[in-house]
Amino acid sequence: MESKSTVIIKCRGVVIHGDKLFVVKHRENAGFYAMPGGHLEFPESPKECIKREMLEEFGVNPEVGKLLYVNSFGNPDGTNFFEFFFQIKNGADYLDIEKLNIQKDEIFEILWVGKNEKLNILPEKVYQDFNNGVIGTLDVQFIR
User: pTM for the complete prediction?
Assistant: First the structure.
C-alpha cells in the first residue's frame, strides 16, 4: 500500500535586538515558542514569504537578511515540513510590542527572551546558537 505525504514549506524570521530574541506562541495550548513566520504561498519565493508574513503578523516591513537555517521534520500523519529561517535586520522596529499591529488570529503571545531562559523554544538549535552568540556567524545550518 502506498502512503501519501504532504510537504509544507514555512518561512521564519530570526529577530534579535541586543541580547534579546523575538519569539511567538501561535496557539494558547502550544507547548513551545517559535520564531515568527508562516506558510509559503504559491508562487512566492521563501524571501517574499517571510516579508509578507512579518508584515501581516506585526505591521512592520522587515529588512530581510541572509538565510540562516533550514529545518526539516515530519509528523506521523505523513506531513513533512521544511522551514527557512531568515535574519531580520531591523529588530528595533519590533521592540515595542504594544505598538505592533498584531494579527491576533495567528499570534497568541509575543516575547522578547534573553539568553538561557527556561522556555521551550523550537527549534532548539536556533535558541542554542542564540545563547552561544553564533547566529549569523556561520554558514547556513541544516537542522533535523
Answer: 0.92
